[in-house]
Amino acid sequence: MKLINGLLLVFAVCLFSSCYLARAYKFRKFNLQDHEKLASVTIPKSDSPYRFIQPAAGNYTGLGNFLDSNLAGTQTAAFLVIRNDSIIYERYFNGFDTLSKLPSFSVAKSFVGTLVAIAISEGYIKSTAEPITNYLPDLLKTDTGYAHITIQQVLDMRTNLKFTERYNSPTSDVIQLGFKNNMRKKMLQTGLDNGNGDFEYQSLNTQILSFILEKATGRKTEDYLRQKLWEPLGMESDATWNTDGRDEVRAFCCLNATARDFAKLGVLYLKNGWWNGRQLIPTQWVNSITNRDSIQGYRYKNQWWLSRTGSTYFAQGVLNQQVYVDPSKNLVIVRLGHRWTYPSYINRFINGLQEKL
After folding, report:
1. Do 3 and 40 reside in the same domain of the chain?
2. Which one of 191, 202, 276, 337 is at 20 to 30 Å from 49 when CA atoms are compared?
3. Same domain, 14 and 97
4. Nearest to 174 by CA among 163, 160, 185, 183
5. Whether residue 345 sits in one domain with residue 277
6. How many domains, in total, are found in the chain?
7. Do 118 and 281 touch, CB atoms closer than 8 A?
8. 84 in the same domain as 20
9. pLDDT at 21
10. Are 10 and 149 part of one and the same domain?
């Protein structure tokens, strides 16, 4: 009885306080509009919006019929196919439309990785071979092993952090990172595990990259995103990025925007980093994602996932959000929504789709 009363007391304290467990419980069944109920900063739309070309009606009727019949009932909110700068398919479901800001979850990681590339090209970061403690020296107080962790290892998630990535456990580290009010404190409480640098997907890596960006550039991550990507890519709508209690963006997730604006990151990579007469990111950075020598046998590079074939790559969120890039067909596919419910996996569905084009 005492144990039950104690647990009830803990729950009551959490419920009426800033306890992260209360917030995690409240949003345990995440609705696609729940991001609006969480603290966030706004990233203003571009002063010079870029709009994709709309193809002539009837050009891709077969594709449209196939997608219309197969996407229904998959919990998809937005599905967009772009080829040669033209929208060849665009459909919204369940009351969402072209202006809907939808959550991306870990698709945000690929935006953060891209900002690191820009910071290197501008000289704010010397090299991905630098130890992260050059920018975050307080990590040495947590674990001296951080002196041997490079920015590249963080980009590729080969850091062996003592960090659990279990989405169905309220005490998992990733849930704490998503709902606690002080992510920097969480980072400084996280040591290193024994390991040999193998890949392990751990969201804290991306948050570390954000803190490195802010230290290196002297700017907030959301401001750097606005200046280096949102404005030059001609984003048509404001975005939001959810924050912790100290107004730090949850960089590992939680960037909310329209499907068309998410697509522009994929198109930037299709163009090898070139956009509207400017080289926004180095071509070498883009090429490294699919370079077999640079990926060292893994399927994750610079905050992007690599397909099994090795020729396509994608940004991916936990609810099967995707920004899929196929350079060989000059193709970008964006899927936003809740967890995918089609009989085959989302990646298999998209791979099959691009084979039809």
Report:
1. no
2. 337
3. no
4. 163
5. yes
6. 2
7. yes
8. no
9. 82
10. no
Q: What is the CA radius of gyration of the chain?
A: 20
pLDDT of residue 297: 61
Looking at residue 342, its pLDDT comes to: 86
**Residue 95, token pair as written in the block:** 């009351």
Compute the distance between CA of residue 97 and CA of residue 138 in angstroms, rounded to an integer. Answer: 45
Q: Are residues 7 and 134 in the same domain?
A: no
* Full domain range(s) for residue 8: 1-30
pTM of the model: 0.93
Which phi and psi (to 5°) does residue 12 adopt? -65, -40
Asked if 119 and 200 sit in the same domain, the reply is yes
Query: Which of 333-356 are b and which e, b meaning 16 or more Cβ less than 10 Å from the residue's Cβ?
Result: bbbbbbebebeeebbebbbebbee
Residues 310-352 have pLDDT tens digits of: 789 999 999 999 999 999 999 999 999 999 998 788 988 998 8
pLDDT along the chain (357 residues), means of 10: 44 53 81 95 98 83 92 96 96 97 98 98 98 98 98 97 94 95 98 92 98 98 98 98 98 98 98 97 95 71 91 95 96 97 87 80
